[in-house]
Design a protein that fits this description.
The chain has about 325 residues and is an alpha/beta fold. The protein contains twelve helices and eleven strands. About 45% of the residues are buried. Bound molecules: NADP nicotinamide-adenine-dinucleotide phosphate.
Length: about 325
Amino acid sequence: MTARVLDGLKIRDEIFAELRRQAVDLYLQQHVRAGLAAVLVGDDPASQLYVKSKIEACHHLGLASWMHTPSASSTTDDLLKLVDDLNRDYRVDGILIQLPLPKQVDTKRVLEAVDPAKDVDGFHPINLGKLVSNRPGLVACTPAGCMEILRRNQIPIEGANAVVLGRSDIVGKPMALLLMHANATVTICHSKTRDLPDVVRRADIVVAAMGKAGYVAADWIKPGAAVIDVGTNKVTDPAEATALLKNFPRRLEKFHAKGSVLIGDVHPDAINAAGALTPVPGGVGPMTITMLMSNTIKAAKLRRGDSTAPPSPSPDTQKDTAQQNTTPSAAGAR
Ligand code: NAP
């Protein structure tokens, strides 16, 4: 039997429609236009593309956005100063530091300098701590997106055996915590886990976030299990692509035309074993930006829970600055 495909693009559109309504309500009720400041250091083409799509998503939802592009030679101190300015700028609800930062920069220090109330990536230790203790806060976007995929497809989580492959701070650990808070029984696996196939075979829900193309074999998947494939691995080796896609001639043809293909951590043949599965691409990928937008609106709401907060400028006033690479002025700072 072929698995139900868990379409991330469809869920993104659904959530975007909800977020657009929330953005309008926020403006009508509180005169607030939620805004995201993106910091893109240097000129890495992949990072430029990611930030561009995040800014486009803001435009699409009517959120304000600012793009800051410090040079590749920026120091830790330069970036700490910029983060400090953004922390103080009242108009900015979310701060996104596009990774990776240049080698000379202390990434941890820069990320930890972001005001936890504006940490829309959910990377700050304060937000991780809130997640551990199941208190409201900003949750890392990719795992939050995986939960949306499960919930919006009515995949039962409570009481399920969930296996998370990977224990990174940005995907594996927060994913495991979110599943645990949703009352799954969670096993976290990593590179030292013994008998991985046997552990995976017991899972009703598998979340794969390892960064290894097609590593999770189809016969590891319990028949009917839900599989969330976070991995996005670019395969360029023809022999590897042929081995992975031997049962998918159309995808293989595309690989030969293009010279590369995106493969998840789960072998493509798992489509014939799982009950439900996220495709790569088009599954988890679109959810990351979606949840970044959701976190920006959430941060705007949480911050305005403060009754002393001054009103934001109207959307029209902000429009003039939103598309420019401006450093927000201290005038709006509190
Ligand atoms: P990461 O920091 O490299 O972590 C990889 C994790 O996988 C580690 O915990 C590692 O274990 C574990 N691992 C590696 N080999 C293993 C093996 N043979 N058996 C069991 N566990 C193994 O990666 P990440 O940042 O979490 O990302 C994981 C994947 O998700 C990557 O492909 C990344 O591109 C993708 N990703 C996608 C999105 C999206 O939007 N779709 C977002 C973020 C990440 P150890 O801890 O023991 O080393």
